[in-house]
Hints:
The complex is a heterodimer.
Chain A: H1 18-21, E1 44-48, E2 51-52, E3 63-64, H2 76-84, E4 90-93, E5 98-109, E6 114-116, E7 119-124, E8 129-139, E9 142-152, E10 157-165, E11 171-180, E12 185-192, E13 197-206, E14 212-221, E15 226-235, E16 241-250, E17 255-264, E18 271-281, E19 287-296, E20 301-310, H3 314-322, H4 327-339, H5 349-364
Parallel strand pairs in A: 1-5, 4-7, 5-8, 6-9, 7-9, 8-10, 9-11, 10-12, 11-13, 12-14, 13-15, 14-16, 15-17, 16-18, 17-19, 18-20
Antiparallel strand pairs in A: 1-2, 3-4
Helix pairs in contact in A: 3-4
Chain B: E1 2-11, E2 14-24, E3 29-33, H1 40-48, E4 54-62, E5 65-66, H2 72-78, E6 80-83, E7 90-94, H3 95-109, H4 117-130, E8 141-142, H5 148-162, E9 166-170, H6 178-191, E10 197-202, H7 206-210, E11 215-220, E12 223-228, H8 231-239
Parallel strand pairs in B: 3-10, 3-11, 6-9, 9-10
Antiparallel strand pairs in B: 1-2, 1-4, 4-5, 7-8, 11-12
Amino acid sequence: xxxxxxxxxxxxxxxxxxxxxxxxxxxxxxxxxxxxxxxxxxxxxxxxxxxxxxxxxxxxxxxxxxxxxxxxxxxxxxxxxxxxxxxxxxxxxxxxxxxxxxxxxxxxxxxxxxxxxxxxxxxxxxxxxxxxxxxxxxxxxxxxxxxxxxxxxxxxxxxxxxxxxxxxxxxxxxxxxxxxxxxxxxxxxxxxxxxxxxxxxxxxxxxxxxxxxxxxxxxxxxxxxxxxxxxxxxxxxxxxxxxxxxxxxxxxxxxxxxxxxxxxxxxxxxxxxxxxxxxxxxxxxxxxxxxxxxxxxxxxxxxxxxxxxxxxxxxxxxxxxxxxxxxxxxxxxxxxxxxxxxxxxxxxxxxxxxxxxxxxxxxxxx
Amino acid sequence: xxxxxxxxxxxxxxxxxxxxxxxxxxxxxxxxxxxxxxxxxxxxxxxxxxxxxxxxxxxxxxxxxxxxxxxxxxxxxxxxxxxxxxxxxxxxxxxxxxxxxxxxxxxxxxxxxxxxxxxxxxxxxxxxxxxxxxxxxxxxxxxxxxxxxxxxxxxxxxxxxxxxxxxxxxxxxxxxxxxxxxxxxxxxxxxxxxxxxxxxxxxxxxxxxxxxxxxxxxxxxxxxxxxxxxxxxxxxxxxxxxxxxxx
Lengths: 366, 247
């Protein structure tokens, strides 16, 4: 197996996989069928312990077999995935087709340590549209090492919403690579709530003129959770826009990481890049590490980044309480308001509801 | 009925209130006037339960309940409302959602059924019309991008919808032009009844032309130094606070 990356690598400086390396994982296990699988009233694809379950799925059109060949990669986790991947979905939306919304569920039930490495591939032909909603959840100790390769062709739009709500002792490492063509849009939002240690790593390449992407995230962490949101946006064509709003709410001894790199190629004039990360620390022992990187070779470019770290505002809290709203509800309202901007790309009602519920549920368990 | 007995309070080591005694019976509007630094805002914050103030002596009861032992939200549920001198901005919180959450929290605390979004909007639209406020004020984020006058009107809107039995208006007239002042005063006057009382805190007399008080108290250096009828406000306007010690 390809070795796990260590903190000696700059890209892994803030996230230590030692606790993952110390565990020996089985590569398959019989799955228990969970009681309440989420149902949003849209086509649903269900993976149990990393294996596709036809009985629980209501597949959409445009579904084809697991992609046998992995994309070439130099990323250590994508390489590990390529060595071990045994299942995954391949979706191809034909030209000018609005495919509606699809729900992709990963549910793990590990009675002893288990690792699974799904490989998914989503392709939207020119002018196609799709909303993909992902939920990852489970019980026990497991390692979910997902790779998703995305191609959004000319004028197509993919909305991609991810809810990472994995089990308390689990590991979730996701690598998402997106190619975004001329006039195409990739609108992504990730909510990180679960897992002991997680990382969502996005590599988005804006490869045609006037392409657009949102890579937004919300991290809601407590206890000793560690979550890393890493993005690399490559502006490889003129007039492209990238927007990243990352909001972290950290309590207990939680640690959040955001590494955001924007690479602007010499040809990518009129690039519009924006990156904002804000953290709300609810305890003295929580920690946020932020590393923005701009690498700009074009000369007519607008790129901005900003970062703030703070606590809940006592004035706002008192204002709400003076109106009769109890303290816990007031805090929840302020936290929800803090996250609002990150949720901007989430335009699908069912997905909104899903995230609203997950955020409210997180708060009531703090 | 609000009964304040010998109330003393400080911020850190600084003594601000030094034995305030004051009774506001149901149905009455009392004005508290006084120079800057007299302790007017401190009194409003101590009554509404803001953190950072230490009560060193005295008692406050509201309808027989020990007000000082209650959390701010319990005071609101008991019927107390503070119209802020500087209303707080809440980015990301819609005004309608905010006021409905508050109203329903208060209704819950009182054992009353909650209002759904439709019933609330009907109430809110009517209230907004009475206050000559634009409709979009409900949709905007709480106080974000509001002018000074709009913020104050938004306080009165909340008051109109939450229907308190005691309102504390902390310098509600500051930063208002005469038209906005009238609208705010009309909003308060509309609430006047046998079961509503108000403590109007102001530096100037002009608000009291529109909200005519039953009693006027002068707060200076943390104490009520004079009390009288509405004519006292006129006297202060004519002679200023400088002559207080002599009087």
